[in-house]
Amino acid sequence: MGAKQTRSEHDHQDLVEKTGFSVEQIQNLHKRFQQLSGNEETISREHLKSVPALANNPIRMQIIEAFFDKRNQHGNELGSYETIGFEEFLMVMSHFRPPTLRTTTEEKETMRKEKVRFLFNMHDTDGDGKITLAEYRKVVEELLSQSGNIEQEAARAIADAAMLEVASTNVPNMRPDDFYEGITFEHFEQILKDLEMESRMHIRFLDVNTTKVHCGK
C-alpha cells in the first residue's frame, strides 16, 4: 500500500511539473476524468459528446476535437488520437489554467500565447499553419446556425466579408485580385491582442468544480 501511494504521489508530482496544476487540482480532475470515462483508462470522443453542457454549443465538435489534437500536448506533433488517457486529458486542461498571484509577467505571457495557440488550432483543422477561408466559413456557419434566422449563403457572405477585412488589415498592400492564403498564427495573435483570455477560456463545460480547480486564492 505504501509503495503504491508513493508511486501515485511521484506520478502526480510529475504532472504538477508538466501542467502547473497542484496535486489537489490533479486529483479533482482525475475524479472528473473517471466520471467521463466510466472508470476506464481512456476516453473517446463519444464520452465527451455525452457532456450535457456541450449539447447546444455551436462549436461543440471543435471543442471535442481539441482534446484529441496532438498539437495541444505542448509539443510539435501533428495528427490526432483515437482515445486519450488522463495525462493527455490533463495537458489539454492545462490550457485553461489561470495565472496565480505568484505567476511572473513572463509566465503570464507564455500562458496567454499557449491559450491563443489552442484557439488557433481549433480553427486550423488541417494543421497547415493557416486558417483558410473554408475553415473560417465553417466556424462562422456553425456559430450563426443557432439563430435559425440566417441561411447558409448569408453566413458564408458574413465569413467572406470578415476574412476580407482581416486580409486587408494583415496585408495592407494586397490588390483585389490577390489570393489571401489564410490567417497565420502571428496574424491570429494580433487579432486577439486586446482580448482578455482568462474570463473567456474556462472549464465550466466539463462540470468541474472551478473553486477547486482554479489556482488563484
Automatic annotation (TrEMBL):
Chain ranges of the EF-hand domain: 111-146
Cross-referenced SMART domains: EFh
KW Transport (keyword) present: no
UniProt entry keywords in alphabetical sequence: Calcium, Cell membrane, Cell projection, Cytoplasm, Differentiation, Lipoprotein, Membrane, Metal-binding, Myristate, Nucleus, Protein kinase inhibitor
A Pfam family it matches: EF-hand_6
Subcellular location: Cell projection, Lamellipodium; Cell projection, Ruffle membrane; Cytoplasm; Membrane
Membrane topology designation: Lipid-anchor
Family membership noted in the UniProt record: Belongs to the calcineurin regulatory subunit family. CHP subfamily.
Protein name, entry field: Calcineurin B homologous protein 3
